[in-house]
Amino acid sequence: MLAFILRRLAQSIAVLLAVGLVAFALFHYIGDPINAMVGQDTSMQEREELREKLGLNDPAPLQFARFIVNSVQGKFGLSYRTSEPVGRMILERLPATLELAFCAAVFAMGVGVPMGVWTGLYPRHWTSRFLQAASLIGVSLPTFLIGILLIMIFAVILGLLPSFGRGNTVQLGWWTSGFFTFSGLKALILPSITLGLFQLTLIMRLVRSEMLEVMRTDYIKFARARGLSNRAVNFGHALKNTLVPVITIAGLQLGAIIAFSIVTETVFSWPGMGQLFVQSVQFADIPVMAAYLLLVAFFFVVINLVVDLLYYAVDPRLRGGMTTASARGH
Amino acid sequence: MTGANAPLLEVRHLRVEFPTRRGTLVAVDDVSFDLAPGEVLGVVGESGAGKSLTGAAIIGLLEPPGRIAAGEIRLEGERIDNLPYEKMRRIRGAKIGAIFQDPLTSLNPLYGIGRQLIETIQTHLPLSAQAARARAIELLKEVGIPGAETRIDHYPHQFSGGMRQRVVIALALCANPRLIVADEPTTALDVSIQAQIIALLKKLCREHRTAVMLVTHDMGVIAETADRVAVMYAGRLAEIGPVRDVVKNAAHPYTRGLMGSIPSIGERGHRLTQIEGSMPRLTEIPKGCAFNPRCPDRGDRCTRERPELMPAPTTQAACWQYDPAGVGTKARETVDA
Q: Where are the beta strands (DSSP E) in A67-180?
């Protein structure tokens, strides 16, 4: 178990280093950083001095090592655009994105899993057929279109919900939260639905197909033959057996929600990291882009690590290893 | 209302149908038999003869769209074939236990066997968690699992196939049922383990006076275990009777063919007989006796009228030979080219 965690940690660090290399390469291959920092009338000599002072003439491996060491300490340098420390800029934007991602994930899991269980248990029921058909729309409609449609209906026509921004936020230390004000909560609804809808349909379809498969297994038949209640069979025995693939997908999707909330944040003018990233791309603000890249990679790696640990919690066949796990069975 | 000699289980004119797009398939057709308390009834037949479905109908777990279309099933005198799901659920496990073919897949891999035993015990008996656990350990000991006190916390994958089938038997016995429907309980096991499991099942049922409906296509298992044997063919009962008589003096031509196809050490040098042809598909069951196209003794009556079970010398057989009017004119001998 411990060996497994250590191995996983080592792999995670390798992944982060690889992403770090890509982020580092950004500085060198997307324009000359000196050009971005100095005015047009700076002389060649001054440029060379600055280059020397910033260590840009050092060998690449040394620069890379310095970049990694600084990144680990949260020092991502100054933004080319605003000259603020990048670390602080991202930290300011982080709560908005994480709160949005959290709400979207809760929405996707909280609605998607029960819908998947229902459609898996009663595949012939008309509601299941309807949900199954409706989920195709969710899978196929692009996020921005869903966002715009929701804005049109709920903000423009009905005037019930705000169409942009976070509403009023509350400051908790460095964290700004929209959870404690009415307008903040109202502002979360539309973007969360927009961001979570695709994941919801994906999770629903996944849970459904897994449930259909599990319900056919012998141990479910045998659980019924033992006279267990429907609730015990459906949720105790069947649902738990669908969890391993569901956890995998849900974990990956959570990463995706955080990383790719860019579109939703743009549509709703949500002051999060995604919006910051889009602005940085427009200005070729390399330090911000590099830091964003590293942060997203970090989230993915952490989530995957958690997912791997959850497998262990769910499936006893992966634990211990004193007996060879049977190749048969589900 | 049950008398001293009343049967535990009565199956009367059971008919199981599968509605399909191309018409209704009759998988079990007019099957009737009794099972006395503590009796072991072997049910044999080829794959698709309807033996497993008869068992599934009794425990009320026919998979849709399969359904009981006609007939009655009575347990201790009370009808159980038309009970609502929730009532039948309380009978399953409590009065009728079940054992399935493959012990490797009968247990939920994510839960320890103790949890699965305890939840079954607590579903049917008003016991505290502690008392249920004590009973679970007791059951594991009874089915011959060494070190039951520690093994109870292990997961299914930590047991061998034979041990898992013992756990499955313990699960079926949790609430001390009156009847166990065992559907091919040894087919998936090694031959050496098969004998152990059968011996165990036999011993436990004798001790608990539990009746067993043993569905199998292994005549050796039947001869070893059963008190009576029912032979099924194409969804119908071909013959039923005491195990000795069915094995030694089979009355129905199909049973004779079936017994003739079993190799025996005593009769070296003989060719094993084999029944010409194969069992008809459910869509093409012939008129009259379902076995008539393959029957060496058929007459014209066999192709017209369907025989019911009737007294044969020592058993009950569904064959016109044992009717006073006989099989009718024998068709011209079929000459194999």
A: 170-172, 175-177
Contacts of B59 in chain A (CB under 8 A): 225
Locate B62 and state its tokens: 């026919």
As a whole number of Å, the end-to-end CA separation of chain B is 60
Residue type, A70: N
B92 interfaces chain A, CB cutoff of 8 Å:
yes
Q: Which residues, in sequence order, are bridge partners of residue B316?
A: B240, B311
Q: Residue A215 carries which side chain, given as an amino acid letter?
A: M
Helix (H, G, I), strand (E, B) or coil at B218: coil
B91 touches A: beta carbon within 8 Å: yes
Residues of B in contact with A325 (CB under 8 A): 157
Residue A241: list chain B partners with CB under 8 A.
108-110
Cα-to-chain-centroid distance, residue A109: 14
* CB atoms closer than 10 angstroms to residue B106: 30
d(CA B198, CA A146): 63
Mean per-residue pLDDT for B107-129?
90
What phi-psi label fits residue A113: left (phi over 0), alpha (psi between -120 and 50 degrees) or beta? alpha
Domains assigned to chain A: 2-72 (no CATH), 87-318 (1.10.3720.10)
For residue A325, the model assigns a pLDDT of 39
Q: pLDDT tens digits, residue range A244-274? A: 888 888 888 888 888 778 888 988 888 888 8
Distance CA B48, CA B100 (A): 16
R_g of chain A computed on alpha carbons = 24
**Touching check for B6 and chain A: CB below 8 Å?**
no
For residue B268, the model assigns a pLDDT of 62
Question: What is the pLDDT of chain B when averaged over all its residues?
Answer: 84
Instruction: Report residue A210's pLDDT band, with 50, 70 and 90 as the boundaries.
Output: very high
Q: Which domains does chain B have, with CATH numbers?
A: 9-226 (3.40.50.300), 244-263+272-322 (no CATH)
Distances (CA, A) of A77 to A28, A32, A48, A274: 15, 16, 20, 19
Q: Quickly tell me which residue has 């930590």 as its tokens.
A: B158
The DSSP secondary-structure symbol of B289 reads: S
* ipTM, two decimals: 0.83
Q: What is the pTM of this model?
A: 0.79
What sign has the CA pseudo-torsion B32, B35, B39, B40?
A: positive
Give the Cα separation of A142 and A132 in Å (integer): 18
Q: Is the peptide bond before A59 cis (omega within 30 degrees of 0)?
A: no
| Residue A95 token pair | 């709560």
What value does the mean pLDDT take over residues B141-157? 89
Which residue, among B296, B187, B284, B277, has the nearest Cα to B235 in the 3D structure?
B284
pLDDT tens string B286-326:
888 888 888 888 888 888 888 888 888 888 888 888 888 77
**DSSP E strands, chain B:** 9-20, 23-35, 40-44, 67-75, 78-79, 96-99, 179-183, 211-215, 228-233, 236-242, 310-311, 316-317
Interface of A with B in 189-248 (CB under 8 A): 217-219, 221-230, 232, 236-237, 240-241
Structural contact between residues B221 and B186, judged by C-beta atoms closer than 8 angstroms: yes
